[in-house]
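Hi all, a correction to my earlier message: I attached the wrong file for LysR family transcriptional regulator. Here's the right sequence:
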Amino acid sequence: MDTESRGRRTCGESAVSRQQDRPVDLYQLDVFLAVASTGSMSAAAGVLGISQSAVSQTTAQLEQSLGLILIDRARRPLSLTPAGLYISENAEPLIALARRMKAQATEVSKSEGSYLRIGMIDSVANTIGPSLIRMLAARTSALSVQIGMATAQEEALLGRDLDMIISTNPFVDHPAFEHRLLYQESFVAIAGRGERTESLSPTLHTLAASLPFIRFSRTSTLGIRIERILRYNNIDAQRKLEVDHADTMTLLVAQGLGWAITTPTCLMQTGTRFADAVTLVPIDKGNSLRSIFLVTRRGEFLTLSNAIADAVSAALDGLLDAHAWLRPYVPMDEEASDE
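and the right structure:
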C-alpha cells in the first residue's frame, strides 16, 4: 500500500472516530423520545408541533450519528429495536437535566439587574428589612417592596402581583411554588416589670390569673397561632383588649396594661426601648416554632434567593447581638418544625 493510500485510510478512520465520539444531539434525542412514547411518527409530529417528515428526518439523523438502528420501520405499528428501547428508557433524565440547565441559566442572566417585586410581613420588614432592601437595591434595576400581613402577601403572590414573599406560609400545597426556610423563632410571653410580676415567678397561668391578656389581631396569621397556644394551655383569656400592631402590643405591656404572647422578631421592632421594662416568660407547652420562609415561583430567582437567605441570616445575627436577651428564643440552627 502506497503512502497516499495509507494517508487516506488514516484520515478516514479519524473521521469515523470523531463522529462516534461526537455528543448526542439533544433535540434529535427529544424527537426520538416523542416517537417512542407515542408509537408513531405522525403522533410525535402532533405532540412536537412539527411535520411528520421533520420527525422522520431527525430520527434518521440520530440513528446515523449513533451508528445504530433504533426503530424497526418494517413493522406496523412501529417498534423499537433493543438499542432503541434502551435509549428510550434511559434518555429522559438527560433531556430533563438539559431543560433545567437552560431554565437556570436564563434565570441567572435575568436575576441580576432585573425589576423585582417582593413582599414582606411587617415584623420582618421592620427589623431585617432595611439591610435586605439595601442589598436588593444594589442588585436589581428597580425594586418594589410591599409590606403587610401574611394573608395579603400570599394573595399578591398568587395573583402575580409579587415575584416573591417573605412570610410564614411555605405554600406546600402549591406545586408552582417553592420555599426556603430563612429562620425560626419561639413564641414567648411578655409582661411589664413591676411588683405584680416580680412576685409571681410568672408562668402563663399565673399571668392569666392576675393580668388582662392583650390579644394580637385574631384575623392575622400570628394572632391565630397565639390563640392556638392559649387553647393548648387551657387558658380562656377574656376578650377585652386587641391590637393589630406588634410594637403597639409591646408598648402596652411595658406600660403595665396586661400581658401578651409574641415573638423575638416582633419584639425587635421596638429596638431596645423596652428591654428593661418587659419580662420574658418561656412557653413550655404548645410552643411550636414560628418559621419564616422565602417563597418564589419554582425555578425563578435561584441566585437571588441564595443572596437573600445569606442577607437575612447576617442581619438576624446582628440584631440578636444587639438584643442578646432574645437569642435563646431564636434557634437559628434548628430544623424546620410543623406549622
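Sorry for the mix-up. The radius of gyration is 31 Å.
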